[in-house]
């Protein structure tokens, strides 16, 4: 994962809008992808990402450079997604495929198409991902977070440990149980 220069973060902390724009441009795609993995809805993912960057902007003064900026940002992202997911689930508006049945565009994957794969392989991959997400419906919040961060976003165990504030051993065991 790309890490942004601390000087840019410091400038953004001091109110430099161009620096904050660099932060957004650097991390936007990963934040949207994480949101999509939790919420399974394109529009909801974009809205959630916007809310996350507003939260980051308002909380930037609290960032103390004790961890990597990306870890701090992704922790905010994961916590916001978990809260939103739980709220939607409680309100019974959540569906595994989409938050809105009527809009077929919501069911499209974001930026996951590999142009080198033929259509059969692509369909198998889409079906596999859908089956994985259906299985993840019954996961605990932590299990779901570990799978999303490791298997879908490619984070290292240490990064997941920092983002979720869990020991590395717990991350590994939760991932193992979830994969089983």
Largest beta sheet, briefly? none
- Give the DSSP E fraction (strand runs of 2 or more residues): under 5%
Overall structural class, as computed from helix and strand content, comes to mainly alpha
Average pLDDT, all residues: 83
Secondary structure elements and pairings:
Blueprint: H1 6-13, H2 17-39, H3 42-59, H4 69-90, H5 119-136, H6 141-152, H7 157-164, H8 168-179
Helix pairs in contact: 1-2, 2-3, 2-4, 3-4, 4-7, 6-8, 7-8
Explain this structure to me?
27% of the residues are buried. Helix 6 (141-152) packs across helix 8. The chain is 67% helix and 0% strand. Mean pLDDT is 83; it is low at 93-102 and 106-110. The longest helix is centred in the first third of the chain and has 23 residues, at 17-39. It is globular, with a radius of gyration of 17 Å. It is built from eight helices and no strands. The protein is mostly helical and 180 residues long.
Gist of the model:
With 180 residues, the protein is an all-alpha fold. It contains 8 helices and no strands. Helix 2 packs across helix 3, helix 6 (141-152) crosses helix 8 (168-179) and helix 7 (157-164) crosses helix 8 (168-179).
Comma- or semicolon-separated keywords:
180 residues
